[in-house]
Amino acid sequence: MENVHLAEEEDDLYSGYNDYNPTFDSEDLDNDAGFQQAVRTSHGRRPPMTAKFPGTAVGARPLGTSFGVSAEILNNCLLLTGACHSSKMQPFVTAVQKARYNEASFKHLSSCRLDEKIKIMEKKVNDLIEESCMAHSLGASQLALEKAKEAGRKERALVRQREQSGSADHINLDLTYSVLFNLANQYENNDMYPEALNSYQVIVKNKMFSNAGRLKVNMANIYFKQKNYPKAIKFYRMALDQISNTHKEMRIKIMQNIGVVFVRMGQYSDAITSFEHIMSESPNLTVGYNLILCYYAIGDKERMKKAFQKLICVPLGIAEEDKYIPSNDDTHTNMVIEAIKNDQLHQMERERKALAEKFIMTAAKLIAPAIEPSFAAGFDWCVEMVKSSQYVELANDLEINKAITYLRQKDFNQAVQILKTFEKKDSRVKSAAATNLAALYSLENDYDQADRYADLAMNADRYNPAALINKGNTVFVKQDYEKAAEFYKEAFRNDSSCTEALYNLGLSYKKLNRLEEALDCFLKLHAILRNSAQVMYQVADLYELLEDPQQAIEWLMKLISVTPTDPKVLVKLGELYDSEGDKSQAFQHYYESFRYFPSNIDVIEWLGAYYIETQFCEKAIQYFERKALETYKDIHRKFPENVECLRFLVRLCTDMGLKEVQEYATKLKKVEKMKEIREQRVKSGREGSARGRKEGREGSAGSGEFHSVSTSAYIDQQNYYSGHSSQGTGTRGERLSAKIRSLPSSHEPYETSSQRELDAPYVDPLGPQMERPKSAARKWQEDDDFADEELGDDLLPE
């Protein structure tokens, strides 16, 4: 009891608890020079500080703090600095030991706070990496790169912080790897290939990163994009060497990349080696298809066949379609099937099957003409192989492709014959074949047959949009536009991606003068086909019909941005600007149209009139010369042997400095040569006729009435073929000689010739073919064949 001290009434038991003692301030320990000196050395200590503790009735109480410092540490601090509360002084050595203990405690406190700060910085770096990846997934490549760079800066600051705190051994290598890898990826996504390669190189060269050698695949991909194929091969092989055989799938993919690079380099034998190894180890559709392409490139028929057989034997690894057919008995099973019928797994299976069918069909169409003497035999072989595989339904598609190949070769009879064999097949194939037959007969303008097969295709498959479009086309040709529009609308309802149905529907509304509805169709179609020139033209034409020339001009300008060299569109623009009174814009577009197609007489005439209006007559002359040139060209196409026309063309081309002058001069020379041959033939025939008549007169004088009658009949026959009445041989010969002499020679100016005489029909004066002299006839025939051979191509209409 003697040690018990009763509290006096005036004492406050809780006084002093809110007093602040700077001894326990740990906020600025990093900046406290004395504390840092004490931490670094075992003998240094801060200047002594005394703390005044409030007295209590119970004795000294530990001071409560909010810093998490234990009572024991506070008591040690009290022993160190609060000597006034002890009646006996402790030895100096004890005080030094207590100081060391306090230094360790503060070091632990500082370390805890540093670790917390580092964790916060690491979290910020991870957040930036995640934000970078998300930005790339949303298509914001530039933002993704900026986030990746910021993550790199913060990660380097974190490393420096650890080095300064003496904890460099605890650097988070995974975080460093993630930062560098993401930065390299974002550089590559932004096509900054040198920077990406540098970032990958930093990772690959750092031995502290395990399995970093795999990133050489990424580096090889960059070299492939840069078309540096030898270096791509080198890095693919380096990556392949660093991947163990346990990672079989990754090794297969790298070998596939190596084969593709060899294909790009044209080294098909090396590519075949890689693809054959893959097909023997782990066959897949893509590699099998590429192997067929390589065999086709080197022309190896037998190996093409073997590769095709391997391709159709590649397992797809998908479930049978029967799995998704509901049964009538089990309601629960039917509900499950309905739920999984369109799930992502089934969609993936359908996509894989579609890809396989695409590869097989393409490969068959490619190798069919190469593996057999004829493409038909090649198709037949492919069909037989497919029928014995898991792709039995593709056999009919191959037969249809065979018919289409006949169509490309313009062998319509064979195509029709093959397609007609499908009339008794199942509905899907029958509909496809009938659809092709309807289109074929439409191209041949046999709309009755086209209508028949369109009906057949619709009856086989009412939901076939192509069949409905063909039916609508046959009705459209018969000008029943309302009914045609109904078929087009039904086709569009069955397949909303059928752009042909929407286009034809717009045309039907346009024919029905329902311009607003037609415009709506073409505007919808423009939203699907943004760069379709036909759609843009229809929209512009409809705006013109709706008397909105400004909108029409705007759409034609859009069309010009897609097809800038279309002369008809430029003429249309010129017409619209001319109707609006803007002559300068009209002239610009008419002139551009003339540049791309200088043979449009309407354009030439408008330009000539424009220069006359603006009083530039010299320029107008050039366009009227061009108009005259085009007129004579048109005459020449219709009358290729008209010498006068050719002379005009030579003269005009010479005056205008055109390169065509040589072409027309050559033609003129040939035609004049032909005319000269004809003149010789006429002369020879005239001399032969004169000799014949002379001999006939002599013979008739000595042999009597019979010879006189036969000679008279011969003369009448000659007069019939010459187109003249019987007037005497001498008069006809003089007339022919005068006509020949009146023809201008090749060196005379073309104005001297008589158009009436040149255009007169040529009459053969030699009578029937059987009575011509053989030598002269043979010579004429040979000369005529020579002329036709040289002039044949030039005489074709343009």
From TrEMBL:
GO biological process annotation, one example: non-motile cilium assembly
Biased composition regions of type Acidic residues, renumbered to the chain: 782-798
TPR repeats: 213-246, 252-285, 499-532, 533-566, 567-600
Superkingdom field: Eukaryota
SMART domains on file: TPR (SM00028)
Keyword Ubl conjugation: no
Organism per entry: Myripristis murdjan (pinecone soldierfish)
Stretches for region Disordered: 678-708, 742-798
Keyword S-adenosyl-L-methionine part of the UniProt annotation: no
PROSITE patterns in UniProt: TPR
One GO CC annotation: non-motile cilium
Parts of the chain that traverse the membrane: none
Keywords assigned by UniProt, alphabetized: Repeat, TPR repeat
Record SUPFAM superfamilies: TPR-like
Lineage: Eukaryota, Metazoa, Chordata, Craniata, Vertebrata
Protein name per Swiss-Prot or TrEMBL: Intraflagellar transport 88 homolog
An example molecular function term from Gene Ontology annotations: kinesin binding
